[in-house]
Fold these 3 entries.
Entry 1:
Amino acid sequence: LWVNFRLASRRTYEQETWFRQEYLVLGMDEKRSNLFRAGILVLSALFGLLAQSQWLMFAQFRHQVPGGPADPIFGKSLSFYFFDLPVWNFLTGFALALVVFSIAVAAVSYVFHGHLGYSRQLHLTYAARLHLAILVGIGFLIIAVRFYLKRYDLLFSIRDKGVTFGAGYTDIHAWLPVYWIMAGIVLAVAVLFFVSPLFGSLKYALAGIVGFVALYLLSSLYPAAVQMFRVEPNELEKETPYLNYHIQSTLDAYDLRKIETREFTTSGRLDAQALERNETTIRNIRLWDWRPLKDAYGQLQSIRPYYSFEDVDLDRYVIQGSYRQIMLSARELNITQVSEQAQTWINQFFQYTHGYGLCASPVNEVTDEGLPDFFIKDIPPRSTVDLNITRPEIYFGEKTEYPVFIKTRMKEFDYPSGDQNAFTTYAADRGLHIGSFTRKLLFAWELGSFQILFTSNFAPDSRVLLHRVIRDRIRKIVPFLHYDNDPYMVIDGGRLFWIQDAYTTAGRYPYAEPFGRQFNYIRN
């Protein structure tokens, strides 16, 4: 934009000799020039933000693994449609928008500088004609490329009022030739603009634009005729190959070829032998609903007002030699429930850093009072079965919405012990080092807490834990996956871990039926 503005700001002898005699030249004084510069700066920033917003698409393009089955029409691999085509579509659209704005900036600048005027017909100096012709030619060259790329979008067309997905007979035998023809015409128009300065006139190039617009408006007539007179009278015959592409691609995209059909026979009788054969299943029939169970956990096992149970999850373990289904919930720390006097900056960022332990109970057992029959309860955690917890600290969870500092000179609150409190220090090797004053300044800016610059509680190995909500943290680490909305906690080797189900999804699988508007390819 800036280069085109500077080019359009040049003065020529041709301008001085006849333009000033025939037209009123507005002139580009300092005020107007500064206004132009400001406008160009704003437009450049907007273009930069637009490009920056597509960082994930470019990262996937750069780090792709080429391959995958080829589509049945063009023979292109899946990686082309997943990674290459979106980038090329964006780049050509981005470049076209940039050229359009450049033409506008240059044209307005030429008007102000006296290179362009109108009196019964358009008049341009040679410099303006050359510059604008090249820009318009580049624009049409980009449009030709976009028509070429548009061919591949036929594989994602919706036909029969949304009943089927992918290219059909009319798309392949009518629209595809139309796109080729339109690409050729636009390319010819681009060439006319490139050579027009040699002839001293733009009339042939402008005639090319008129022809292109007319053909573009008429381009849908041929496909409509093919659909009406060739396809509809013989629809089953013409569309069968493409329906097969649609079915086979959908099966592949959703990995449905491994489905097995099994027949289960039932006798309709329930006897002792049937109960014995299905003892494990019967023993794990869930009776507890998670909502009243969550309330019961909160009333019986919160221990302190600042502990809360955000969700109840299901898990399965071998307990005492038997396969058991249990329900469990993490005891997270909710800083907003700490007494008002204790809600200090030090407590929030340095001391109240983590939750503690969990509750677990079988899905189908209650006490005589109708309460959960706990397998694991209390602080520190006590287990009545061979399912023990040796590391009960919970630094990451579903309600840990604020950052905390660890490995500082202050001990962290661990858990309440009667009238006293137990304290601890973060034992793992995670978090971002606080380090130098520059890093402190950056953390202070990011967290909006400039007390970081002045506190004396940091030690040489002090760190900060950011993005502690499990869903947010995982999305920061692996942003290209599609996540289930419900992470769940498990016990393994005495430690507590969060598991987040994730899926690889894409919306550019040729011919595959889309799931709503979200995707048409998925793997777990």
Note: Residues 2-253 form one domain.
Entry 2:
Amino acid sequence: MTNVTSPLAGRAIGLTAVPDPVFSGAMVGPGTAIDPVREPSEAVSPVDGIVVSLHPHAFVVV
């Protein structure tokens, strides 16, 4: 068994529930999403990077 931790607090949901057609249509491949808690919280990354894009429904770390 592999343990996968979440980069932020919230509930795991299927990609079809994501309000972005690129993700909900699996155009970037299979996966899962996190429906984040509705309060200020910290997002963590397993890699060193810079947030280059921030959207109401997603963030991009490069």
Note: The chain has a mean pLDDT of 83.
Entry 3:
Amino acid sequence: MTGYAIYPAFKPNGRQTSGWADVDGTTESYEADVADDGEPGAGVDRFRLLLNGARVTGLDDHLAGGNIQLHKQQCQ
């Protein structure tokens, strides 16, 4: 991961991470955007993934399960 920031489209519960990933031996850029919009059974968390700028999943793709949780920053 080379970047971490608040993601304005999902404010105030959104975060964006970015960096580089190994995809079948090739280095590719990625961006993952997440939103912690509710606890299990009470709200829908969201996830968006781009690989080399191309959308893999979108903002309107709601997660069917799981529990995204934001944690306070521990280091600088």
Note: The first strand starts at residue 3 and ends at 6.
